[in-house]
Specification:
The protein has one helix at residues 87-93, and strands at 25-30, 45-50, 65-67, 77-80, 106-110, 116-121. With 131 residues, the chain is mainly beta. The radius of gyration is 19 Å and the shape is flat.
Length: 131
């Protein structure tokens, strides 16, 4: 274990030097017999995915549906993407800015299927009017 705790890595054991093979289905499973850094059992989890051709299409931001919360509320700004996005990439690259171009701090959550995001600003009513 490193300073960050346990690390779960997937290794490609095939003789080919590619991370995933086109047309194959992969599964990752976490069993509750695995423990966290402080000794608690992990929740069982399973995710399957099918490898298709690389999606090199740039997201079309103008097709996203933006649903603004009522002014001065604690509601989240909701964004529905035109197609599912990579969850980690969306989490790292989605930023909300005010009209002056300054980033608004807050909590970003991406749906499990990568089809939408919710953003709750740290300061109540900080989003202001949405154009």
């Amino acid at each position: 274990m490193g300073a960050r705790g346990p690390c779960f890595c997937l290794y490609n054991t095939s003789p080919q030097s590619v991370p995933a093979i086109l047309g194959h289905t992969y599964t990752i499973r976490f069993k509750n017999s695995w423990k966290t850094a402080d000794g608690r059992p992990l929740q069982p989890y399973e995710k399957k995915w099918y490898v298709t051709h690389r999606d090199a299409t740039k997201p079309q931001v103008d097709k996203w549906k933006v649903l603004a919360p009522p002014s001065n509320s604690k509601g989240a700004l909701s964004i529905e993407f035109e197609e599912p996005l990579d969850i980690v990439l969306a989490q790292e690259s989605l930023h909300i800015e005010n009209r002056a171009g300054a980033e608004i701090t807050g909590m970003r959550e991406i749906s499990d299927d990568g089809s939408k995001a919710e953003f709750t600003p740290s300061i109540l009513g900080f989003l202001g009017p949405i154009d």
